[in-house]
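Human: If only I could read backbone structure tokens as easily as an amino acid sequence. Take your time, and here it is.
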Amino acid sequence: MRKFKRVTTVIGIVLVVILVCGFLLLKAPLYYQVRSYAVMFVYSTFEKKFSLLDQNNMVMKIPGGSSTPEKDWFPFVMTFNDDKGFSDFMGRNLSLTILYNFGAFSWSSSSSAFFDKNSPYFNSFYGGYVVKDNESNKIYGFTEEGELDLEETFAIPQYDYKYLVLQSLGCPASKLKMEVLSKEITKNIRYVGYDDWVRIDSLMLVNSPEHKFKGNRRAYIQYGNPLIKEKDEEFKLMTTYGRIYARYFPEFQSTVYLYIMSPNLNTVNQCDEAILGKSVIAAK
């Protein structure tokens, strides 16, 4: 009987410790990082099963933050599909798979670097787009003469940033902004093992993601909590750099874009050299 009581007491103490630790974890900055990793890994794995990559028997491996010694980017690249939303936006039947990554969490903050304006990874993304036109033999993003279609090319990051990122953070439709201020096009580039890429470097006017915390928005699960102070302006305008590599892959009947976006030009160049340029595109 005494032994049973001791066991019961020990179990009770262990349960109390677990509950206390769980409560403290929920209040600690580490919780937001762990939550983001867990939820986004499961969700991204689910999305991959319905992606153009799976449909095309295509491998598109873009390194994540775990590939570098620095704590710079989220550990892994995530996948999201939005065929209907992008089709409605463009007015025709298209398939769109988005691969993306953003600035890492720090161990001492409930927010990722995406919201930290003092970080070189503030409002920064990189990843890839895979697009297929389902209505005709038209190649998305290129003219019949094989020239880059700038309007269709920029339509993807505009849709992505304005309607998938900013609106998920609560930015009013009347404030949504992504305007190309200048651009430079370079043709016939060899990149990630293939010739004939077109590179577009641009300067854009966009909304900052900074805003006041508002309830439990689902976007906070992946990015963490916003850091703006009460007196600061929400979603104010800022300039940012963009870099896009575009190429049509006839073997997949899809156009592939690899992209980087950051207000810090050094971040763009470093990401290009250390991460994006090491991507692998191949058939399964």
About this structure: The mean pLDDT is 90.
